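Page 37, continued from 36.
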């Protein structure tokens, strides 16, 4: 049996030993011994030497040969089945590794996307705060402009009232001066003619275009001023 173990370990091939007598409970039993290497990784040469040892009851001497052939065939089939299972396991492991790598890459992409979305959200929040602040400033400016507009409206109304009062006072004064029949010339501090009553034209030859001219430079008024 030691030779069979060595052969199976070195050759990495199954070894079958039919008709082996084994002592059990004080008696001997004829069994068929099967040794099959077991692969633990994709690199079976680099892994440890593991062997699957099975014992099968043997038949009578005539049936032993048939049983041997059957055992060999069954052993070969079992070995092939084990090899297929190992290959399938390795394939599944590779597929699982590929899926794990793909899942890891997807998780990294998702984390990157989450960080980008978080950054974009912070930027949008900052922009929203700025827009809100600008809107508040615009509301304040609108209220100030509305207040200024109301003040200007009030001032404009007051000015219109003053202009109306002044116009009424001028009209009243003109009516008063015209009613007295006295010729009067109104001048400013530089002796420029501001206005005159119609009666003064009977004494001085003044015309409407003389308004704004100095009294002393008008030939029509020099003798009057001298006489006065």
């Amino acid at each position: 049996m030691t030779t069979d173990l060595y052969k199976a370990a070195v050759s990495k091939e199954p070894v079958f030993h039919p008709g082996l007598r084994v002592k059990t409970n004080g008696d001997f039993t004829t069994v068929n011994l099967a040794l099959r290497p077991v692969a633990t990784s994709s690199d079976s040469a680099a892994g440890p030497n593991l062997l699957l040892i099975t014992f099968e009851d043997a038949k009578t001497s005539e049936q032993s040969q048939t049983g041997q052939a059957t055992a060999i065939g069954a052993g070969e089939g079992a070995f092939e089945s084990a090899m297929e299972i190992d290959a399938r396991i390795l394939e599944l492991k590779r597929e699982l590794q590929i899926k794990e790598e793909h899942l890891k890459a997807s998780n990294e992409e998702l984390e990157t996307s989450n960080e980008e979305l978080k950054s974009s959200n912070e930027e949008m929040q900052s922009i929203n705060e700025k827009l809100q602040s600008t809107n508040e400033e615009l509301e304040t400016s609108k209220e100030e402009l509305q207040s200024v507009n109301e003040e200007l409206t009030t001032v404009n109304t007051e000015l219109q009232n003053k202009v109306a009062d002044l116009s009424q006072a001028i009209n009243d004064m003109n009516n008063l001066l015209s009613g007295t029949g006295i010729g009067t010339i109104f001048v400013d501090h530089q002796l420029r003619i501001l206005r005159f009553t119609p009666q003064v034209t009977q004494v001085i030859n003044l015309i409407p275009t003389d308004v704004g001219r100095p009294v002393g430079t008008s030939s029509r008024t020099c003798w009057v001023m001298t006489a006065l």
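Strands lie at 15-24, 27-38, 50-57, 185-187, 193-196. Flag for discussion at group meeting. Confidence is low (pLDDT under 50) at residues 221-228.
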